[in-house]
Design brief:
Blueprint: E1 35-39, H1 47-60, E2 64-66, H2 82-94, E3 98-103, E4 128-131, H3 136-145, E5 149-151, H4 155-158, H5 163-174, E6 190-192, E7 195-198, E8 200-210, H6 211-217, E9 229-236, H7 240-252, E10 261-268, H8 277-286, E11 292-294, E12 307-309, E13 312-317, E14 327-331
Parallel strand pairs: 1-2, 1-3, 3-4, 4-5, 8-9, 9-10, 10-11
Antiparallel strand pairs: 5-12, 6-14, 7-11, 8-13, 13-14
Helix pairs in contact: 6-7, 7-8
């Protein structure tokens, strides 16, 4: 693979130096009793898993949950037809009482909504949009439009999320927790990686999500510019050659030009033919020539730490002799 892609000279140290990220709108923090919507913009939803997740939102986080009675609709591989899912989206986005929109499930289908997303509805007033996997395409479009969103557990996965993942999500939504663990960072302030792909330190706007969905957005108007960004990606059930293909497509399409750093999350069930997804991705990411870490606990696993997409972050990838673990630190932007 070509190694001509490089981080810009004078790698950005965020608030510790000269990097200035584009201003994105960060929704205000939630409070107990706030109204939130649960929607199904993608695949059909398991009613039992949905009920367990809604119970977490209501009983653990103290939120008032609103959702349509047809949220469990099914049309083949979709949660109802496009008209139903679009109407549900618009109702949630237009509800002036609502402070957040939680996506029930991933799968496939959110791409159908992109041409009629009307992102401005989420900006006035700003609302959190929470989810991952297929929801990556919504994050991409909304980040491009100027909104900070949360790559975080889906409602149908909240019931099996680890206590640490729930604490981390709550800290990002309601305000940073005072809890701290040895060798870690406080919930809502960042997360650790397990390894360094390429040492260095860089800051930028965190963008990304499912690698598959990012590749499928390549060539469309909804993929945000990654110039000056920290790219995060994860995936599930993609063979190593497919991970190679997606990253190569993004590179050849110019989407990776100017990326400042890379964070690799969970690559769940991505091993095949004597290769692991991690080792294939490691080689491809290293060739980009920017600071990079792997093993960030975000993606398709019960331990799925929320990430504030569109917010300024700092990647610390210690080199030989440098202290501390590889880590992704959240430089909190102003609340709206």
């Amino acid at each position: 693979m070509s190694t001509t892609l490089r981080a810009p000279d004078g790698v950005a140290p965020g608030r510790r130096g000269g990097y200035s990220a584009p201003a994105l709108i960060r929704p205000p923090l939630l409070h107990p009793g706030d109204v939130v919507h649960v929607i199904a913009p993608s695949g059909p939803v398991d009613p039992d898993k949905l009920a367990r997740g809604v119970a977490v939102l209501r009983d653990v986080m103290g939120l008032e949950v609103r959702m349509r009675s047809d949220v469990v609709a099914r049309r083949g591989y979709l949660a109802g037809d496009d008209a139903r899912r679009l109407a549900e989206w618009r109702e949630a986005a237009s509800d002036l009482d609502a402070k957040a929109i939680f996506c029930a499930r991933g799968g496939y289908g959110a791409m159908h909504l992109l041409p009629r997303l009307e992102a401005a509805r989420l900006l006035h007033p700003p609302k959190w949009v929470v989810g991952f996997s297929d929801v990556t395409v919504l994050h991409a479009a909304l980040n491009r439009a100027g909104l900070v969103t949360l790559h975080a557990p889906l409602v149908t996965t909240l019931g099996c999320a680890t206590p640490e993942a729930l604490e981390h999500l709550r800290a990002l939504l309601f305000g940073s927790s005072d809890a701290a663990r040895a060798g870690s960072v406080r919930p809502g302030q960042g997360c650790l990686g397990t390894g360094v792909i390429r040492p260095g330190r860089a800051s930028g706007t965190l963008l990304g999500g499912s690698l598959t969905m990012l590749a499928h957005l390549c060539g469309t108007p909804w993929l945000p510019s990654l110039q000056g960004a920290v790219l995060f990606f994860e995936d599930v059930a993609e063979k190593p050659y497919r991970l190679d293909r997606y990253l190569t497509q993004l590179r050849l399409g110019g989407a990776l030009d100017g990326v400042r750093a890379v964070c690799v999350g969970h690559l769940t069930a991505c091993d095949a033919d004597g290769l692991t997804g991690a080792e294939v991705v490691r080689d491809l990411v290293h060739a980009l020539g920017v600071p990079a870490i792997e093993g960030v606990a975000a993606g398709h696993a019960d331990h799925n730490l929320a990430l504030p997409l569109g917010s300024v972050v700092t990647v610390v990838a210690p080199g030989p002799g440098e202290e501390g673990p590889p880590r992704l630190l959240f430089d909190q932007g102003p609340a709206a």
